[in-house]
């Protein structure tokens, strides 16, 4: 059993007017019920605690149907996983993480409940993201990583076609794509992302219910849309080499890969890339490491973050590792470049 702080909430303060809407009335009644149970039992189970916390601060109260449905698909995909046997399961690790996907999923269920429940086609949209892995029978990643651990120490994994991985292994021929390249419409959702612009949604439900149309945030007068203001974080273009930390059964399907290159010394590899890039392009800023995933509605920065190392939580199940490379002073061409770092056969191998 867990406790949650009682007292004035966003909903109760918004209900100060004489004629609350039906949706707000629903929130008030539901929160009162959890407060009663909390008082009687001295605490709440974890799932009910998450519900009560959301009811106190319903950041999805005014978001559009389109935005809520898109969030359903994103959260649904990240609370699920493929097991070693090729079955759909729950990501147990998400149950205990602070600000987890399971917590976000519980919040979303409350948001839908206030609007009459989750519609069937919305559920189908979520399951479609998982059913694609079984389009040709058993997901190819199941056989590829049979009897292998989920993660190898100090290793990263590049998923691609074997015809591209062979020259990478033997010659160290790497393809570096500009970050802007990944926004192109032809890419799969699992690859497509606005890498040069991150959009944070900061809730402004209280202000919207009070009739405000704009909020002053850090000196900018930003419009309220769907009960939140949008804070864009724009960064100059950069070259990007992406890989994954896990041997995940979903990744071969996501990246249309028939092989995986396991690089067994990630730090050594990153140093080689940095050295070769600077030799080719001159002075440059180079960063590498695991990606930090952010929930646009639950923005919780833990200290300074590099926008180039941030990504929307829709892709968090991919456990991406990236090397960011930006030449100093020169504008990037919007097409991929190739870089040679020498043979990788001493510290990498291909899993077909």
Question: Could you give the topology of this structure?
Answer:
Blueprint: H1 10-14, H2 22-41, H3 46-56, H4 65-79, E1 80-82, E2 88-90, H5 101-113, H6 120-131, H7 140-144, E3 156-160, H8 162-171, E4 173-178, E5 197-203, H9 205-209, E6 214-217, E7 220-225, E8 228-234, E9 239-244, H10 251-254, E10 259-263, H11 266-281, E11 284-290, E12 292-294, E13 310-312, E14 320-327, E15 337-340, E16 348-351
Parallel strand pairs: 12-13
Antiparallel strand pairs: 1-2, 3-10, 4-9, 4-15, 5-8, 6-7, 7-8, 9-14, 10-16, 11-14
Helix pairs in contact: 2-3, 3-5, 4-5, 4-6
Outline the structure in words.
With 352 residues, the chain is of the alpha+beta class. The chain folds into 3 domains: 10-134, no CATH class; 140-186 and 237-351, no CATH class; 200-231, no CATH class. It is built from 11 helices and 16 strands. A 5-stranded antiparallel β-sheet has the order 11-14-9-4-15. The chain has a 4-stranded antiparallel β-sheet with strand order 5-8-7-6. Strand 1 (80-82) and strand 2 (88-90) form a beta hairpin. Helix 2 crosses helix 3 (46-56), helix 4 packs antiparallel against helix 5 (101-113) and helix 4 (65-79) packs parallel to helix 6.
Provide a concise account of the structure shown.
The chain is an alpha+beta fold.
Keywords:
352 residues; alpha+beta; 3 domains; four-stranded antiparallel β-sheet; 11 helices; 16 strands; globular
Low-confidence stretches: 13-20
SS field, number of helical segments: 11
Strand order of the largest sheet: 11-14-9-4-15
Helix content: 25-40%
Biggest pleated sheet: 5 strands, antiparallel
Question: Termini distance?
Answer: 48 Å
- Average the pLDDT over all residues and give the rounded result: 86
Radius of gyration: 23 Å
Element-level helix/strand string:
HHHHEEHHHEHEEHEEEEHEHEEEEEE
The share of residues in extended strands comes to: 15-25%
Number of domains: 3
Q: How many individual β-strands?
A: 16
Strand pairing plus helix content: what structural class?
alpha+beta
Shape: globular
């Amino acid at each position: 059993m867990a406790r949650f702080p009682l007292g004035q909430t966003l909903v109760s303060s918004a209900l100060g007017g004489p004629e609350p809407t039906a949706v707000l009335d629903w929130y008030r009644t539901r929160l009162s019920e959890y407060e009663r149970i909390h008082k009687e039992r001295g605490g709440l189970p974890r799932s009910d605690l998450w519900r009560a916390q959301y009811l106190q601060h319903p950041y999805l109260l005014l978001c559009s149907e389109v935005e809520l449905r898109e969030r359903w698909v994103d959260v649904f995909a990240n609370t699920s996983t493929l097991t070693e046997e090729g079955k759909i399961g729950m990501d147990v690790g998400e149950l205990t993480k602070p600000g987890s996907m399971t917590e976000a999923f519980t919040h979303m269920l409350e948001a839908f409940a206030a609007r009459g429940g989750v519609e069937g086609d919305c559920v189908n949209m979520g399951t479609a993201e998982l059913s694609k892995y079984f389009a040709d029978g058993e997901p190819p990643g199941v056989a590829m990583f049979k009897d292998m651990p989920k993660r190898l120490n100090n290793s990263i994994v590049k998923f691609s076609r074997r015809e591209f991985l062979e020259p990478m292994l033997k010659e160290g021929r790497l393809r570096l794509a500009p970050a802007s390249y990944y926004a192109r419409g032809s890419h799969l959702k699992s690859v497509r992302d606005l890498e040069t612009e991150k959009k944070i949604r900061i809730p402004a439900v209280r202000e919207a219910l009070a009739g405000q149309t704009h909020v002053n945030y850090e000196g900018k007068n930003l419009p309220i849309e769907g009960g939140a203001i949008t804070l864009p974080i724009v960064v100059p273009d950069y070259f990007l080499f992406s890989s994954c930390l896990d041997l995940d059964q979903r990744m071969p399907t996501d990246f249309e890969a028939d092989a995986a290159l396991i690089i067994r010394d990630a730090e050594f590899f990153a140093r080689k890339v940095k050295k070769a890039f600077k030799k080719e392009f001159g002075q440059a800023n180079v960063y590498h490491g695991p990606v930090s995933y952010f929930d646009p509605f639950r923005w919780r920065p833990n200290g300074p973050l590099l926008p180039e190392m941030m990504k929307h939580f829709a892709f968090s199940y991919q456990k991406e590792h990236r090397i960011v490379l930006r030449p100093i002073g020169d504008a990037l061409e919007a097409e991929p470049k190739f870089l040679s770092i020498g043979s990788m056969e001493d510290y990498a191998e291909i899993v077909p």
